[in-house]
Amino acid sequence: MIVTVTLNPALDLTYAVDALVPHGTHRVAAVTERPGGKGLNVARVLHALGEPVLATGLLGGSTGDRVAQLLAAEGVGASFTPIGGETRRTVAVVDAGDATGFWEPGPTVTAAEWARFTADFRGLLATATVVTLSGSLPPGVPIDGYANLIADAAAAGVPTLLDTSGPALRHGLAAGPALAKPNDDELSALLPERAAGRDGLVDAVRSLATGPVVVSRGAAGLLAVAGDDVWECAPPVAVRGNPTGAGDACVAALARGLRDHTAWPELLADAVALAAAAVAAPAAGDFDPETYRSTRATASVVAASPAGGTRARSHR
């Protein structure tokens, strides 16, 4: 069972428009309402892939009730800790070329609510094969909250996959997750003076983490740093659409591969393909099966030498 943790979930609203014009009035062609937050997107993708998954985290108020209802309607297993605050909403405005997001702040979590969640989390570890820890920390959760959950999971022998940003990412990396998946911007925010290019990115990863890290770089694909090994994988063709849930689909693929001990070339090709398929889908948490199949069959993985260049190329 893959357990996905979402401490700051949301009710996701996606508005489809012909073209987004700042300061203009827009007629919305379609509205999509989904359970949101990065970890819930991961759970929904895994469920669609037929993987056993359980979503957990913090939910509160009528918005939290709606999120729980939507998850149940999709058949996604869930076990949330209730809180007194109102779960947030997010709005993504999607046009033909890209998406613009508006994220509400999360509710304030009390010390007692956090203590209840950590106790509930430790109880779920008995059936977990992998834990994903995704997204921002709501107000009130300690900045080392993910680091503490990583330590709890490690004590239970359960590997963790971390996908967050800012100080929570720095603390989480120091706790030694089995794998981390920041994006390039999130790493740059922690090390704004890092050198440019691939080598600068590799050096940044190695200065922040002791374990494997997969960096998502948008259309440039993924870069994995695991000890002395560096791997790169990019989609063979650019995919246009909604990139909002691409990183979460990538995490879903990485979590499945972490559970199955998948080798790096196959793991990265699968993660790139699933991320591309998410871009081709209309809303975060979905993916387009045909894009997944075609990208998975044609994605190539390059093993780069530590000093630059390439050692080998694996075509999947």
In short:
The protein has 316 residues and is α/β, with parallel strands linked by helices. The protein has helices at residues 38-48, 61-74, 111-124, 145-155, 166-174, 184-190, 197-208, 246-260, 264-279, 289-298; strands at residues 2-6, 10-16, 30-36, 53-59, 77-82, 88-94, 99-103, 130-134, 160-163, 179-180, 213-216, 222-226, 229-234, 300-304, 310-315.
Features:
single chain, 316 residues, alpha/beta, UDP-N-acetylmuramoyl-L-alanine:D-glutamate ligase, six-stranded parallel sheet, five-stranded antiparallel sheet, 10 helices, 15 strands, 38% helix, disordered C terminus
**CATH topology, anyone?**
UDP-N-acetylmuramoyl-L-alanine:D-glutamate ligase
CATH superfamily: Ribokinase
Ends apart, CA distance between termini: 27 Å
- Which outline best applies? globular
Mean pLDDT, rounded to whole units? 91
Number of H- or I-type helical stretches: 10
Largest sheet: 6 strands, parallel
In percent, how helical is the residue content?
Answer: 25-40%
Low-pLDDT runs: 310-316
The tally of structural domains comes to 1
User: Which class in CATH terms?
Assistant: Alpha Beta
